[in-house]
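Worked example 2:
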Amino acid sequence: MTAYSYLLYTDLSEEIRQAYKGALLRYCELDTMAMVMIWEYWGREVGYFK
């Protein structure tokens, strides 16, 4: 949240802005993968996936 607020409310150079953007996109990618892994685990546990 802090990195996103820096992007919105501070005057950053384009290089730093792109670094923050890349880091946030990577974070979103990893967070989404973790959610998928949890969903798959619970799907196997309850028999949704066979």
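The first helix runs from residue 2 to 9. Residues 25 and 31 are 10 Å apart (CA to CA).
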